[in-house]
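Write out this protein's structure.
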Amino acid sequence: MGDVFFYYAPDGQIPKTQPFATIVTKDYPDEPPSGLERAGAFRLNISVGTAEFRALIGRDPREQNPPDIALSAPDVILTHPVYGHLAWLAVVGPAERTSTKALELLDSAHRDARARFQRRSGEAAP
């Protein structure tokens, strides 16, 4: 399908949890379009948590998206078109303006996923 799902899975088994990030390469019928029909277009989606969501977006994730959000705007960090209420952010074609922040958010989401895994499994933190 071309999409990628990121999990923390040190044992190689996909956990029965949500991924901490995804990359989608096409628009889906049940979502507002992100303009992914363009050649090479993709959308990076990251679970960032409520505090980071508020810091970047300026509102609580459970508040409704403003109706004029341009979901297809490239290189702009936006609320995820479907999972924004769960503190997910999205960026179509991360590039010069967003790549550093997107990498920071991915690193943080990975650390959070690892910590959740360690709490659930009783594994000691490194």
